[in-house]
Write a structure and sequence with these properties.
heterodimer, A: about 280 residues, alpha/beta, Rossmann fold, six-stranded mixed sheet, globular, B: about 300 residues, mainly alpha, MetI-like fold, about 0% strand, binds adenosine-5'-triphosphate, binds magnesium ion, cell membrane (chain B), transport (chain B)
Amino acid sequence: MKNTAFEVQFEGVGRTFAVPRNSRTSRAANTALGNAANAEPREVLSDITITVAPGELVAILGTSGCGKSTLLRIAAGLDTGYVGDVSIDGTPVFGIDARCAFAFQEPRLLPWRTMEKNVALGLPRGFDKVAGAQRVAELLALVGLSASAHLRPREVSGGMAQRASLARALARNPGVLLLDEPFGALDALTRIKMQDLLLEIHAAAPTTILLVTHDVDEALQLADRVVLLGRMPGQPGSTITELVTVPGNRPRDRGNAELAEIRAHLLEGLGIDRHVH
Amino acid sequence: MSTTTDSALAAPARSNGSAPSGSVRSARNTAPAVKTRNARNPRSSRTRISRTRGGRLLISSILPLAILLVWQIASTSGLVSVAQLPSPEMVYLAGVDLIQRGLLGPFIGISLQRVLIGFTIGAALGLVFGAIVGLAKVWEQFFGSTFGAIRAVPSLAWVPLLLLWLKIGEESKLTLIAIGAFFPVYTTVAAALRHVDRQLVEAGRAFGLSGVALFRTIQLPAVLPAVISGLRLALAQAWLFLVAAELLASSAGLGFLLLDSQNNGRTDRVILAIILLAIFGKTTDALLSLFEKWAVRRWA
Ligand SMILES: Nc1ncnc2c1ncn2[C@@H]1O[C@H](COP(=O)(O)OP(=O)(O)OP(=O)(O)O)[C@@H](O)[C@H]1O
Ligand SMILES: [Mg+2]
């Protein structure tokens, strides 16, 4: 395994979703979102500036709809309509970025492929076939899906699908790992197992990880730093309202007083802009 | 596939990953074993007759046999004149007669050939244009309304033009059939491609796929079932247009047999031609549906 980890830099990044007048599909999408005919351009992210060091694990917290997924999509090159600069390893992101691997908020597995073949989709292009099969088997074992390797997505539970999606992203052996609520559909026990797994993988082959989560405790357990996205007064879009460096080495003691204080602070931050949206 | 034995059926069906489809399939193949299986396994008492192979054959042959029976009674009881409705036997004899004259074989051959060639050309073009239009908005705007307008033209309206341009040769018939086969494929493929789950496409792109690789990995498998039902529709259309083409201008084929027999008052041959069209239409469709089953099992 190559030990790559890239720096990720956001410089004044903002994103406004425009409403093209003559596009049928986007109008339909907007109706679906609830803001019908008179929808206007909406600024979702404003002026996000942060540099994530190589190998750092940064958790992104924020209320639903504040733009967390959008931020990850921008980093991956999947969203190109942003303003500002994004660079990975010093070079600007241009188009889909092969240095990133994405575990989406939804599992997004191909329904006609088995779990095994779905995970194999994540392997880097031109990966040796035999070595690839072996790597897929390893990853399936890591996420506890060995017994389900030959099942189709519709035959597995939501949590199993989500673990397969995580394994698919890991298969890339990426320099930047973008995880959008990767443990959202898991029960408490599996969740802790997967969190430990992520930390193990991170310790063994340090990649840079951007981890979106709703869960403050998860952020405090896993991350080196925690970013809180929220709205500043007078600004329409979300920006970084808090940037906390989490003290102590992992695994961290949940009862730690300092952590409890940070936790309370972050929770308060999450509550503040609850009236928005 | 149907070689499943009783003992194999009794084996636990849920042993591995293929359990769900496996158990359904085994339930279908239980024709001779229904009784013993029911006795052994109370759950399978829900196996209906409609689920077994022999049962399905039985149910689906009731109506054709009934029609044959009514036909026989109606034609032999004097209820309808034999000139109006010849008996099944007379239709059969008409068939034998045509075979002996060496006409039926070539007629069937030429009709099948026209359908298959016309269908292949039309379906292939439909696949290509459907893919182009379904994948790129620009091409949808470019072709969409024009093709929509051409599609709105009733099939028979093409005949005079095709005859003027291509004369009465094979080309005019093949073109007509190809037009008929083109549109079902074109529309289903284009629509299916437009509705491929965008999130899956995005996931594919995020994992480095683009162009042909993206199409092969995500879009093609996603639309395959729709493509195949489009092909089945197109095949039905091809037979429809074949008869239209042969009725209007031909000297051989099942459509010609229909027209010629009508002119000579040979109701027996008309009915024979209709039955043959039904049989060949159904058989070719059944072949495609086998292919469809395979593709759905493989991809969906
Ligand atoms: N393609 C789009 N077109 C228009 N608006 C969009 C689009 N994508 C996202 N948005 C808007 O951007 C905002 C942020 O969306 P995003 O998915 O990034 O939220 P999130 O923070 O990930 O929320 P959640 O925690 O619920 O996943 C939402 O209000 C959404 O309506
Ligand atoms: Mg999200």
